[in-house]
Amino acid sequence: MQAITVKDRDAGVAGLTLTDMPYPEAADSEVIVRVHAAGFTPGELEWPHTWTDRAGRDRTPSIPGHELSGVVVELGYGTTGLGLGQRVFGLTDWARNGSLAEYTAVEARNLAPLPVDIDHTVAAALPISGLAAWQGLFDHGRLTAGQTVLVHGAAGGVGSVAVQLAREVGAYVIGTGRGADRERALALGAHDFLDLEDDGLDGAGEVDVVFDVIGGEILARSAALVRAGGTLVTIAEPPETRPRDGRAIFFLVEADRARLSDLAARVRDGRLTPVVGAVLPLTETAAAFAPEKRIHGKTILRVVEEGS
């Protein structure tokens, strides 16, 4: 099969190449998925597990990408809950070959059935963005109706989902980003917007929850905005500055079949719209990863044309 691989840590994006790789094997309770569309996180070339397995052993050439939508073509021994020919979407394991390939092996529990009326490119934009937003806001942030949440990067892949979910539960939503993102964030449901380039965090006031996807100085300055008993939640990096009378949480997204199904139901009935910024062929993966390429929403790589 063909896959995007990386071999050299120092090569960066330039080291992403389209390569012939062995067809994967399905272990117990796993499935082989023919990948139709795949998502990625731009920073994953810096993640340790891109280069080593859970035991710390080198696993290059490795296949990046951890979000996928496709069709089950093979069942491992003991696999339950999924069937051959079933449309699915979900997450691959962080420390194994990923989704930027024609086929990949995935634990069945990390996948959810995909309704026939959701396109694979839309579904591939959901796993990390949707699960990160839900887990950050509700599992860790404990956001409830009537509270105020500050969502950094409100027009991005994760932030755009967070804005919509927070608005749905009845929270007051303040989005942040570049000035050009204002109208997009407001259209998604943000009640207010802060331009981080011109306004910074002035005017945010005190909030119950900060949901951060940016890290760095923005994360550090956000701690002071959390009111007593509130929570600073981030997926960017462990926070060095903590709220005076609140909690600070850094977390990694966890696969959750039931929650993926719930997110898909929201997409079907119009309560949630994943923002797909661009759809590119697998051959343009390096261009998609390029740091200077700023796309609103989630960039998705099309592996198989619909109907193929």
Automatic annotation (TrEMBL):
Keywords: Oxidoreductase. It holds the Pfam family ADH_N. The keyword Oxidoreductase applies. InterPro entries: ADH-like_N, ER, GroES-like_sf, NAD(P)-bd_dom_sf, Quin_OxRdtase/zeta-crystal_CS, YIM1/Zinc_Alcohol_DH_Fams. GO terms for molecular function: oxidoreductase activity; zinc ion binding. Residues 12-301 form the Enoyl reductase (ER) domain. SUPFAM superfamilies: GroES-like, NAD(P)-binding Rossmann-fold domains. This is NADP-dependent oxidoreductase.
